[in-house]
Structures are given as C-alpha cells and as structure tokens.
Amino acid sequence: MNNEELKTAITTLLPTGVFEEGGDWLNVLLEPSDWLPFALQLRHQEAHYFDYMFCLTCIDWKTHLTMVYHLSSTKYRHNLVVKANLDKAKPDIETVSHIWRTAEFHEREVYEMFGVNFVHHPDLRLLILPDGWEGKNPLRKDFDDPVNMIKL
Amino acid sequence: MWSFSNIADTLHTWLHNTFNATLAKFVEMVLVGVCVISLFAVLGLVLVMMERKVSAWMQIRLGPNRVGPKGMMQSMADTLKLLVKESMTPDGADKFLFNLAPYIAMMVAMLLMAPIAFARNFMMWNLNIGVLYVSAISSVSVISILMAGWASNNKYSLLGAMRSGAQIVSYELSAGLAILSIVVLTGTLNMNEIVLSQADGWWIFKGHIPVIISFIIFIIAVTAETNRAPFDLAEAESELTAGFHTEYSGMKFALFFLAEYVNVFIVCAIGATLFLGGWMPFHIGHWDGFNRIMDLIPSSLWFFGKTFFLIFLIMWFRWTFPRLRIDQLLNLEWKYLLPIGMFNLLLVTAMAILGWYF
Amino acid sequence: MVEELGSNTEGDLIINVGPQHPATHGVLHLVITLNGETIKKVEPHLGYIHRSIEKMCESLTYRQFIYVTSRMDYLSSHINNHACALIVEKGMQIEVPPRAQVIRVLMDELTRIASHELWWGAMAMDLGAFTPFFHAFREREAINEIMEETCGARLTMNYMVPGGVLEDLHPDFQRKVKEFITLYKRKIAEYDDMVTGNIIFQNRMKGVGVISAADAISYGCSGPTLRGCGVSCDIRKIYPYELYDKIEFDEVLETAGDSFARYMVRIREMNQSIRIIEQLIDNIPEGDVQAKTKAVLKLPKGEFYQRVETARGEFGIFIVSEGGTNPYRIKFRSPGFSNLSALDHMARGSKIGDLVAMMGTLDLVIPDIDR
Prior knowledge:
- Chain B is globular.
- Helix content of chain B is 70%, strand content 1%.
- Chain B has helices spanning 4-18, 21-58, 74-84, 95-111, 130-138, 141-151, 155-186, 191-196, 203-206, 208-225, 237-240, 250-275, 288-295, 299-320, 326-354; strands at residues 117-119, 122-123.
- Chain C is α+β, with helices and mostly antiparallel strands.
- Chain C starts with 12 loop residues before the first strand and ends with a helix.
C-alpha cells in the first residue's frame, strides 16, 4: 500500500488519528489510550500486517514526551510511523512488547532514558544504566550532570 | 655401543662395586627420582615450545622468536614468570583440597612414567603388569581435576570439573579396550615384552585393519582423556573461561599445565609402545639386511621419534578442530567408540586365536 | 556446599558470563540460569560501554556527528558513516557526484567483507578452533591496508562526509582491490575446507539456536539473522539507497533459521560483495568526489529516517530536527540490540556450548548494542 491508501485504511481504523505531512512515511498521531487496540489491529489485520517494528523511541519536547513507533511490514513493505504524546508528569502508555517482542528491550531503554512508564510491561527494569539510576532520565532535555557532561 | 642401557648398566655395576647392595639400591632410586623430575621439567619446556611452534606454523605466524636462539628459551622465561607469580587461594575455597589438587595431578603424571620403556633395556621399572598399571593410575588424574573444580568454589570450575569427570570416565573405557586388543595379541601386560613382540613388525602393520581401528580409537580416547582439544571441554575457554583451573595462578597453575603436557607425552609414549613398536626399530618380517640397517639407528631415537610424531598428531588436532559439545562428546563415546571398540576387541581376539596376523 | 556455590532454592546455577569473558567479545554481561549444562534463561545486562552517543550527538553539528557513529559498530564504521551522510543529504537535498557514489558502495562492500572475515574467525574461535582466526585476519589485513591508504585509518575511517567522500582514492586503490579479489577467491575455498565442511563444526551449528521466521521478525532481527530464517530483509534490495538499485547482486537467503543458516548467509554474502566490487572496480567514473556544500549544514525542521544494511543488519538513524545546526533528537537503531534480544528465546533449553555458537552467529558487536 502506498501512503495514500494507507491513510484511507487507517482513517477507517482510527478516526481520531491526526496525520502529519512531510517525511517519507505516513505519520499518525494518536492518543496514548488508543495505542494498544490500534497496535493490535495494525499487527493482526491481514490488510495491514505491520509485523516488523524496526524502531521505537521517544522525543522529549520539553513540554511533553512523544513516543515514536516505526512499523513496517515484511509482506507488503509499507511503513508507518505512529506517535503518541505523553504527559510529562505522568508518562504512561500501554506496552506492545507482547505484539512485537523487540519492543521489550526498546521499551526498557526508553523507560530508563526518558522515564516513560510502560503499563503491563513484563520486566520493566533498567537495561543499560547501572543500578541507582532509577528516576534519573539522561536523555531528557532537562537532565544535567555537572561532572560528566561537557558543554560544547 | 653408546646407549642408555649401557650407561645404566655401567652405573649399576659401578654402584654395586663401590657400595653395599642396600646403599647402591638407594642411590639408584634417588638417581631415578632426579631423572624423572628433570625429564618432567624438560618435557614441559620442550612440549610447550613445540606446541607454540606447531600452532604458529599452522596459523601462519612465527611463534616465539625473541628469547634465546630462535625463541627456544621462551618457555624457560615463562616458567620463571610463573614461579615468581603469586599463587592465590580464593577466600571461599576449600584451602586444603585446592592446594592439594595440582600436586595430585603432577604425581599421577610422574607415576605413569615408571613402566615406560624409553630405549632398549632401559626402563625405570620392568613391571609385569605395566599396561594395567598405566590404565589404573591414569584414572586417578580425574580426581585431581574434580578436586580442583570443587575446591575452587567457582561455578565455572565446578562445571569444568563435572564435564571432565564425565569425559574421562567415559573415554577410559575406549582407551582400555584399545589397549586390550594389543594385550590379547601379545598375551602379556609387560611393556618391554610387548615391544619385543614387535621385533618382526609393529603391531599396526602386523595386526592390519583391526589394530588400525584400535589405534584410531586409542588416539581419540587419549586425546579426550588428556583434555586436549577438540575434547578440551573441561577448560573450554570460550565457554568456561578456563574451566577447572580458573582460580589457579602462579606455580599451581603451572603444575596443572605441566601435568597436562606430561600426560600427553605419556599417552603418546604408550601409544607408540603398543602400536608402533616403542623403541623397536622399523623391522619388516625376515628381511634381515634391512632390519640390521634399521638397528643402526639408536633405539631411544626410535622411541622419541614415534612419541613425538603422535604428540604432533594430537597438537594438529588441537589447532584444527572446533570443540565438541558435551552431549556430542558423550554420544561419540557411548554410541560409537565403545560399541566399535567392543566389536573390534572380539575381532582381534578371533584374529589372535586363528593366527590371522602377520 | 551446594548452597554456598551460589545456587538458588530450585537448585539452578546462576552464572555471570561477562562482562569479561572470552566468548562475549567485549563487555557484554549475560546472566545465565543453568540447570546442569542446560540453559533455562539468559538475561543480558548492557551498558558497560554505553557512551550515550545519542545525547552526545544532540550537541554536535551535522558534520561532527558522523565521527561518533564510527565508534558504534566499529567493524562496519563505513556503513554507519554512510547512513549519516545519506540522512544529511536527504534532508538538505544534496546531489552526490557519481564518482563518490561508486566509491561509497565499494567501501561499503569492502567493509562488509572485512567485518564478515572477522566474524568468521571469531566465531570459529568461540567454537574452539583457533586457527581460522588467523587465516581470517590475513584477508582482513589486505582490506585494512586498502582502507588505510585511502582513508588514513584502519578501523574508524570517517571517510564519508555529507556530499560525498572526504578525499579521492589512493592511486593504488584499483590495483590493490583487484589483488585482494584474486587473493580472496583463492582463499575462500580454504575457509570451506577448514570450517564449513568440518563435521564437528556442522554438528555444533546445525539445529542450534533455531528461531522461526515469525519470531525473528517479532524480535526485530535483521541482517543475516533474519535472512537465515528465509525472510527477505536486505535494505539494499528492498529500500535501495545509493547505487544499489543499479548493481546486480543476489540477496542471500537460507531457510533453516539455525546457526548454520546464519553462518552460510554470511559466507555467501561475502561472495556477493565480491561480485558488487567486481562490477564497480573498473567502472569508477571520473569527476568530483564531493559535492559543493555550505560550510554550515542545517537540516530543515522535521523528522528524517535513513536505514542502511550494515554487516550485522538494518542500521537506522532517526533525526528530529528543529532547523538548527544540531539535531534536536537523534536515535540510532542498531541491529545488534534487536538481534541480542532474541538470544534468550534462542538459547532456552540448549547447552552452554550452544550459547557460544549462537552468540557467535548473531555477530554481536557490543559498542553497537550499547551505543
């Protein structure tokens, strides 16, 4: 499916989704609460079949956090970018690690780097950072380490 | 003629003429002890050097070439380094067993030297049950490894020791069966008599196919018994860092290391004695002229030549093959080598009874 | 005594493999739960070499951040640099001169061969065979020499810049590459004799670390790991970049999904890389090696994603730009990270010896995983 077809297909799936223009791929912005049912449909509906999650990350926009999921299909070779804005004070979103297993590690990385809480994640612990870094989120823009960070 | 047996006889006569019988015996014992220890040390140095040169040759490298002429003193320098290194004992270790284990490993290797015939009429102990003695004593080496692995209080060591236990106990069967086939053919357990029985040809030629099969089984089994690659699961440095001797350092590690190399020498010496005629020169049946020419080469050269050929073979294995997995290792023994070895022993027995050998 | 040896109540043995362990090739730390020799669980602990490259890049300009990416997957640093150059070129719509394009592809493929050579040697060493390691380094050395002459470095080349490549090729480049191809063709048969055809080796690899195609996709595996399951995922074929849509080469696929399949994919991939190099080496067009670019690079506001096929799989860069000279947020999607996440799934129920074979064929490069 090309971007236009994908857009129509997704509009029927998720009427509340907001599409962003620009970039190679179709971007759809949704509410965090819509994410899990939408993800299940994307993965399991034969017409979409987004079985490959090749990137999962988060952006700190200072006012809010944005989760970015890059999805692709090994069958149809179409790509989709799903975004969800999270409240910075209480960044909760449903985990998708049971749909795409790769999300388990990526979500753990985002959890420690941005402090996003993935609800129902099977094993939400620090992956990369050593013990004692819980609650400190180094990739957030307001993170400051006067000792180890060299300002250029 | 200038040979080991002449020297030994001269010395023996001189000692008995000079001292009384008890003292002479005692001095001889001390001399033998000194000889064993120096042979032990020299073998360690030579074999380590040989291993490094062989591996370098196979790996398109030069190998050690800085210390001494052509790097020949490298293993000397390494020994010196190991001697001055601190021998650490981990806190949680069972100290007594931990320190005892390397000495047991070395003692086993030393004891095994006793019945080996190094040259014509030259052996430490002309034991009438030589072969049995060797297979009995070599089983003790597993105890030292288990002891080291258990006492280290390290999980890698324990896993390595357990692997080693399973491995040595299994492969001893095959090695024993392979040795038995020669015992069946010669009808003696005495190493010297086994060598003498090969005066008209080595067993590997006289016994043709069944003995060749025994020989192959023997080589595989002893490679496994000495924990050499591709059967070095007890050490398996990519899986268990260093296996049973992970926690050993300094001279205690060196003793394990030395014992391994001396064990390799001993099993190769036994292989050479049983299958390749030991010190017996290359004889063909009744070609007396040919045999006489062969006799001109000293018997000790024949013995060491054959032994080092087998050692080279084992080193060749090590630097060529990947390591087996533990279940594959045991499968190989219990499903292939042992049945083949048993059947082969039957074949050899039939052959010995019917006289179907040269 | 058993309790003292660190077993838990169920009698399982918990072993730390790493961070300093001969088989992890770097500072990877695996906590393995064992039942005897059988693996019950593998839990990777990462971060021993985490340098927070993503955070670092936020304060680097678009010319500078390329040099950091060489330090991620240091075995295919060219290809990482390539991705960085591509994403800046895509954002700023820079046309790369044809000569530079050919040079880039040549370098990528040489890097891929060098990386696979190292993997081959290291993997054989994991399985207990030392000799292949040295033989692999002989060929890799030839590539490194070529790299050194042209790029001035052997490992972290930093040769690709936005708009082309840094400098023109060394005058000896073509001759040396042709020499390398002859050498390689003579030696690859040796590889098969020494390792591929070895019965012990095959027994160690076949049926070990099996992962189904669906699981591999779900775990986000890419590169030879996914192609070993029979899933076509070569970025060079599916989403061609640079010249790859104009070059003839085959995507290597195996269907078994075990360690041996992954092994064969890599071995056959080296031959395909040689094929690409052979097509291009005599057809390097004359001209500039670098397009004229502004002194200060600024990506327009927006989000950019570029993926390339490194030796280990799909490498992606995600840049969020605010229109300034630095990226606002940068994310590197490293192939090793996702491939490693599948290790637990693969390893359960197999022996410790198999774990080493699996890690070997996943071709883990730890700085790539940790970033």
